[in-house]
Amino acid sequence: MACLRYDPVCGVDGQTYGCGVADAHCHGVEVAYPGECGGGGGAACYDNADCGSNGVCLKDFRCLGPPCQQGSDHCGCPGVCIPRQFCSDIYQPVCGTDGKTYPNACFANQAGVVVAHDGKCGVGTGGPVPITRP
After folding, report:
1. Residue 10: what are its φ and ψ, rounded to 5°?
2. CA distance 37 to 16
3. Verdict on whether the full-model pTM lies above 0.70
4. Helices then strands, each counted (H, E), the chain
5. Number of Cα atoms under 13 Å in the Cβ half of residue 52
6. What topology is assigned to 85-123 in CATH?
7. For residue range 39-63, what is the model confidence (pLDDT) as tens digits?
8. ∠ CA 90-91-96 to the nearest 5 degrees?
9. For residue 96, with 0-12 CB atoms within 10 Å meaning exposed, 13-18 middle and 19 or more buried, which class applies?
């Protein structure tokens, strides 16, 4: 996948995907955490049982905790948890690749959605115009 900006995420398969969430999803892989894999965090493990309740042992033998709860700063397993980013109230609408309009890019990122373009979805996107014949 070609991308304009290097935005690495670590997949639950222990592989780094350089083009972010969309890259991982194109390979059918869920994102474990932002950044490159193996960059620290997570306890050593040999199977999922070593990671506690709902934990997952990645291919690089690091423990990934259960998904973070909204507003939580830590997970049940000594894995990696990224606190939710604070998004400003500044209205600069963007269209996500899921076809939904978000108040700004920060809200799209929080939802795990890649920004398709600036502005509302379906407005002036320059898409194909149907040709009608009389």
Report:
1. -100, 125
2. 5
3. no
4. 2, 8
5. 14
6. Wheat Germ Agglutinin (Isolectin 2); domain 1 (3.30.60)
7. 555 556 666 666 665 566 666 666 6
8. 120
9. buried
